[in-house]
Amino acid sequence: MDPVESLRMSIRTIRGNRLRSVLTILGIVIGVATVVAFVTLGASLQAGVLGEISPDDQRNLYGWAADPDVDGGPGAGAQPVFSDRDLDAVRDLDDVDEAYGYAPLQTQAVEVGGERVPLGDGVIAAGPSYVRESSLEDGRQFDPGAQEAVVNPAAAEGFEEDVEIGDEITITLLGGQEIDAEVVGRTDTSEGLSPFEGFEQSPRIYVPTDPYYAEQLGRGDGEEVDDVRFTLIIVEAESADPTAISDARAAAITYLESNESDASEFLGDDLRVSLETSRELLAQLQAIFDLLQNFVVSVAAISLVVASIGIANIMLVSVTERTREIGIMKAVGAQNRDVLGLFLTEAVVLGLVGAVLGTVLGLAAGYLATWYIDLPLVYPLEYVALAIIVGVAVGIISGLYPAWRAARIDPIDALRYE
User: Angle at which helices 336-373 and 18-51 pack, to 10 degrees?
Assistant: First the structure.
């Protein structure tokens, strides 16, 4: 029998049992759509996050001291061990361009011009170069030791009238202390500036660690503070060159783990210093996401197995229902291979249609997810091709036995079948 004729007859049979055909391929649609949607989201997330790493940030090393057996994201299990003297010493190392502490302040609210808005987090104390000049839309970086702040667009637009350069803001800390700052700059984006913040958009106010971190510790009010410890630190290499980053990392860790540092009194087998670049930290997050993605693919594979069993079951039912038709075909000259090809073609068409519909649904779901999270859309085309191949393979595997059984039906018995 001509393959085109087999295809035509298969499509006619499928269209004649539309509801049954739709229910049969539903498992393939769900399995393929899940895989395509999740892989699309993963590829878009990777492109979006890696795209946020600016050339200036590529030379930064993000550090903390934690139990080496603790797993998690950036700063997981970090303990406050780094003193101001440690940061000054690291800053003076030959291979280090800058070093400063990083500390999210726990706050209650922010007030500007008599208007007070709640803000539970988003006030970040860091060094001046944490807010890079290239990321400023207006104004300048804050100065260390000054009561100054840089706001991002989400924070500036959170009031009835936008916060402008020169405005005075009052930050109420969680303990009730109120600290004032003059707005001296505004960033060009509301996205986070480092892996410590995450890269999502939210209101943020950046202030110098001196004096605001001491205020958060409740030791401010003009008193000299000499025992401030930082949980997180940032060390800037002289350039983004891998050798320069490696040298800065080695020099900083050598000092911090030596007996010369204040941090060394807490370090040992329980605490180790980690200094990671943005890409290294994101690679860890990507590994976690890949693990989750593999889990979802495994679940989707179960759906495909169930779908293949469904197709095989429906094809066996179809063979039984069409026994007389098979007998008539053989009586007029059809060979076993013609019957085999006819039923196998029908199973492949079911698998292919399920894969195509699942791919379209998965791409649409991936588009909606990336649009909602505000990520650049990246379609993994290799997975689209793989989904089509898997759909055809499922059709072939599930249709082989029913087709073989149909081909072996004796024409005399088939014509007698009621």
Answer: 40
Axis-axis angle for helices 323-331, 336-373 (nearest 10): 130
Any idea what the Cα angle at residue 412 is, between residues 410 and 417, rounded to 5°? 90
Confidence of residue 49 (pLDDT cuts 50, 70, 90): low
Chain CA centroid to CA 112, Å: 35
Is the Cβ–Cβ distance between 174 and 186 less than 8 Å? no
The 8-class DSSP code of residue 199 comes to: S
pLDDT for the residue 32: 85
The sign one gets for the Cα dihedral 330, 335, 336, 341 is negative
Give every CB contact of residue 111 below 8 A, 6+ residues apart in sequence: 117, 169, 170, 172
- pLDDT tens for 187-245 read 988 888 887 887 677 899 999 988 888 777 655 455 555 678 888 999 998 888 889 89
Cβ-proximal residues to 77 (8 Å cutoff; 6+ apart), any chain? 66, 67, 70
The two tokens of residue 257 are 């783990």
Looking up tokens 């839309």, which residue turns up?
137
Torsion over CA: 342, 346, 352, 353 (sign):
positive
pTM above 0.85, yes or no: no
